[in-house]
Write a structure and sequence with these properties.
single chain; 4-stranded antiparallel beta sheet
């Protein structure tokens, strides 16, 4: 006879919102095609690249989580250093 297990509690999903902010950078030229490709591959698919900054429309439960994940993505791109964050 097979035993039946009670279903595990599904993870409670937090509501998410789209947060708009800009991260100022230094180092690598963000407008070079190679850098743009690397940004995309790093997870910045929700970003608009500008000279010296990247604007995000990032979905996350909180603004802080959105900014943290964007910074983590940017910091994987060689030569890109985060200078600051501006909220719009």
């Amino acid at each position: 006879m097979s035993s039946v297990r009670a279903p595990e509690h599904p993870a409670v999903e937090q509501a998410t919102s789209v947060h708009h902010f800009e991260i100022e950078t230094e180092g690598a030229d963000l407008l070079e095609w190679e850098t743009i490709d690397t940004l995309y591959e790093a997870g910045c698919t929700d970003a608009t690249v500008r000279h010296g900054s990247v604007e995000f429309d990032r979905e996350a439960p909180t603004l802080v989580e959105a900014i943290e994940s964007a910074i983590n993505d940017l910091e994987t791109v060689p030569g890109v250093r985060v200078k600051g964050v501006r909220r719009h």
